[in-house]
Specification:
Elements (H helix, E strand, L loop, with lengths): L1 H15 L8 E3 L7 E2 L1 E6 L17 E4 L8 E3 L2 E3 L9 E3 L4 E5 L9 E11 L2 E9 L4 E14 L4 E9 L2 E8 L6 E7 L15 E5 L10 E8 L2 E6 L2 E6 L11 E7 L14 E15 L13 E3 L3 H29 L1
Parallel strand pairs: 1-21, 3-4, 7-10
Antiparallel strand pairs: 1-2, 3-20, 5-10, 6-7, 8-9, 9-10, 9-20, 10-19, 11-16, 11-20, 12-13, 12-19, 13-14, 14-15, 16-17, 17-18
Helix pairs in contact: 1-2
């Protein structure tokens, strides 16, 4: 029992220190290194049916490691109409968003978030989509540790969206080779009636040698004033100053898995299914209602992505799993 109490205390301290409670801003590395006011980590690696593990590190920083992640993310439930044959409607439904018990042999995670897409019949394909609902976002660094699996004819997306001309995307198509990723700032074409491609609006980029989106990798989009930068595992794969979304009005942040029998995504056979599996989502962002920055003498900027924070995330994940095992052991001892 004494060991169990020590474990609780140590894990509580480590979780709270994952991102320092005194941080007044959060900085990124890379070509468009920036400072953001808000930080969020949604960790799906060891989620149990409890709402007690969420940590509000400070006014601007929060780490969520339990089912309360749905307080900040809206699970979409709506039909998206077809744009015309051969496209079919996409039915976004909560049943395509779930926490999955992992069968992988890993000490670092036992669960993950799954977004799935499945072709139901000739006229319908279901999809899963979540929308960040806590704030409207004006500039962000969005990082997702995920992998994509399944039948051709689906698209895994990580993107910001205001409208069809103010949108920035990371997309992985299950019909593509597993090392191809699409990066876009919309619109990608001139629209009706000619639908001519806009050079540079969409690029198809290979992942670094030996990397495939069927394996776990961190996909990252940095949306900054006048520039979008795209990364895999912190290796820059594309950057553009073309059609960068505006900050005002602000955009939403979306993550999804979908398909529509379209020429863009491809056709999925009836009964087919594909999944976008996610260990965690990390957001650094500003908002349309951001609080004023702290006075210069009181500022403490925290760099996100350094070794200390990465180790803190791993340690917090391991502690979450260890606490669950110790809890079961204590219950067995007491009942015995």
């Amino acid at each position: 029992m004494f060991v169990f109490i020590l474990l609780i205390l140590s894990c509580t301290i480590s979780a709270q220190n994952t991102v320092g409670s005194t941080c007044t801003g959060f900085t990124t590395n890379g070509l468009a290194n920036s400072t953001f006011l808000y930080y969020r980590l949604y960790d799906f690696r060891n989620i149990y049916n409890t709402r007690s593990a969420s940590t509000q590190n400070s006014i601007t920083s929060k780490t969520v490691t339990n089912s309360s992640w749905t307080n900040d993310w809206y699970i979409r439930n709506y039909p998206r109409k077809s744009s015309g044959a051969p496209d079919i409607p996409v039915s976004f439904t909560p049943r395509r968003v779930s926490i999955t018990n992992s069968t992988d042999k890993s000490p670092y995670y036992s669960t993950y978030l799954t977004l799935s897409s499945a072709r139901i019949n000739e006229s319908t394909q279901e999809g899963g989509e979540i929308t960040f609902d806590e704030f409207n976002v004006s500039y962000a660094s969005i990082r997702v540790l995920g992998r994509v699996k399944g039948t051709p004819g689906a698209c895994a997306g990580i993107f910001t969206y205001l409208n069809d001309t103010e949108e920035s995307d990371i997309e992985m198509f299950t019909r593509d080779p597993a090392n191809f990723v699409h990066y876009s700032n919309q619109p990608s074409s001139t629209g009706a009636p000619d639908w001519l491609p806009i050079p540079g609006a969409t690029v198809n980029v290979s992942m670094p040698d030996g990397m495939y989106w069927t394996d776990w990798h961190v996909h990252r989009l940095d949306w900054t004033p006048g520039r979008s930068v795209f990364f895999v595992d912190d290796i820059q794969r594309n950057t553009t100053t073309l059609q960068v979304p505006v900050a005002d009005p602000p955009s939403g942040v979306y993550i999804d898995m979908w398909g529509a029998n379209s020429t863009w995504v491809g056709s999925m056979p009836i009964g087919g299914e594909a999944t976008f599996e996610i260990q965690w989502v990390e957001l650094l962002f500003n908002t349309s209602v951001s609080s004023p920055a702290a006075p210069a003498e009181n500022q403490k900027l925290c760099a996100i992505g350094d070794d200390k924070i990465s180790w803190g995330l791993r340690l917090a994940s391991m502690c979450s799993k260890s606490l669950a095992l110790w809890s079961i052991l204590v219950v067995l001892i007491v009942n015995y």
